[in-house]
Design brief:
This protein folds into 3 domains: about 100 residues, Beta Barrel (Elongation Factor Tu (Ef-tu), domain 3); about 120 residues, Rossmann fold (3-Layer(aba) Sandwich); about 80 residues, Ubiquitin-like (UB roll), CATH 3.10.20.30. Helix content is about 20%, strand content about 30%. The strands form 3 sheets. Strands 4-3-6-1-2-5 form a 6-stranded antiparallel β-sheet. Strands 12, 13, 14, 15, 16 and 17 form a 6-stranded mixed β-sheet that branches. The longest helix is centred in the last third of the chain and has 14 residues. It is globular. It holds the Pfam family Fer2. InterPro entries: 2Fe-2S_ferredoxin-like_sf, 2Fe-2S_ferredoxin-type, Beta-grasp_dom_sf, FAD-bd_FR_type, FNR_nucleotide-bd, MRET, OxRdtase_FAD/NAD-bd, Riboflavin_synthase-like_b-brl. It comes from Neomicrococcus aestuarii.
């Protein structure tokens, strides 16, 4: 081994001032042992306000499960912002996220992403996944809630002859509906997928106030493994229907994209200190601590803005927070708080 040292020293001198990792980075932009990255390989326009972004992940990425989501980081004006997006591709394919233009980060991804761009990544996670044993499925989605379900359909329908999936999808118009052509083609080709479309801009919303409409389109819905994904109102209606039917909301697997938050207290915020990241941010009393941290470029633990997933739980080191669902002000040192529904109520120190 001693004979190799002069060669190693010569190589180090030859690439100075670059380190070995920086040198590999010249040849492969996603090579990094410190930060998971992916290079964009394709951008597909889905609707005028949405796009699917395919990427080749680098070292450290593990194949996702159908239905999971990942944190995507993008730099805007020199600050790295992180957001959660459902993965729409099937496992084993180049991963992709389908993004709708809602907010600054999503807008940047939809309209400015180009092939060759580098995205910052966090590992895929989430429990909105297919059952371990094959069984008939009912999928109910609205808007961009189709995204994680699309990963499931791409996984099941073309590859499992015994697949039995009823998909009820709601969108405002046909032009706004994600994956509409692909879903229709899959439904026409494979008898294992039955597609029910509901365009609320031209007809009534799918009625879940009683079981009647669901009985008409899927008579055996009570015995199927059911998945619901979409806005808060849509998901809440489904929960209520399952509860009234006697099957119980526990029979649903749910993914919410938004939760209903009340207005905070303007001017009631304070200085938020992210102790482990060594950052301080002045916060208002209306923005969630999750948003405050993400806008400061901090990789915040989070699943989605559902407020009940608890993957965003963070130690409160000092100060108090306001729960934007109830208005309650609370907080004790060491308490775990949900940053996705909490705003600063004065100065706050977080264990991030």
């Amino acid at each position: 081994m001693k004979r190799l040292r002069p060669l190693a020293q010569a190589a180090s001198i030859a690439i100075h001032p670059l380190g070995v990792e920086e040198l590999f980075g010249l040849f492969d932009p996603v090579f990094s042992r410190r930060q998971l990255r992916g290079v964009v390989t394709e951008v597909v326009r889905e609707t005028p306000q949405s796009a699917t972004i395919y990427f080749r992940p680098g070292y450290g990425w593990r194949t996702h499960k159908a239905g999971q989501w990942a944190r995507i980081g993008v730099e805007i004006n020199g600050v790295r912002h992180w957001r959660s997006y459902s993965i729409s591709s099937a496992p084993g394919q180049h991963p992709s996220v389908t993004v709708t233009d809602i907010g600054e980060v999503s807008s940047t991804l939809v309209h400015n992403t180009r092939v060759g761009d580098v995205l910052f990544l966090a590992p895929a996670q989430g429990e909105f996944t297919l059952p371990e044993e094959a069984r008939p499925l009912l999928m109910m989605t609205a808007g961009s809630g189709i995204t994680p379900v699309m990963s499931m359909i791409r996984t099941l329908i073309p590859h499992q002859k015994t697949a039995d999936v009823v998909l009820i999808h709601s969108a405002r118009t046909e032009e706004d509906s994600l994956f509409v052509d692909e879903l229709r083609a899959l439904s026409a080709k494979f008898p294992g997928l039955r597609l029910v479309e509901n365009f609320t801009g031209v007809s009534e919303r799918f009625d879940m106030s009683t079981p009647a409409q669901l009985d008409a389109v899927c008579p055996d819905w009570r015995t199927r493994a059911a998945y619901v994904c979409g806005p808060e109102g849509f998901v809440s209606d489904a929960e209520a229907l399952w509860t009234r039917s006697g099957t119980g909301a526990a029979g649903l697997t749910i993914e919410r994209f938004h939760t209903e938050l009340n207005a905070g207290e303007p001017g009631a915020g304070g200085l938020v200190t992210f102790e482990l990241s060594d950052k301080e941010v002045e916060a208002d009393g209306e923005s969630t601590l999750l948003e405050i941290g993400e806008d400061a470029g901090i990789l915040m633990p989070s699943g989605c803005r559902m407020g009940i997933c608890h993957s965003c739980l963070t130690p409160l080191r000092a100060g108090q927070v306001r729960d934007l669902r109830t208005g309650e002000v609370h907080g004790e040192p060491g308490e775990l708080i949900q940053t996705c529904v909490s705003a600063a109520a004065g100065s706050v120190n977080l264990g991030l």
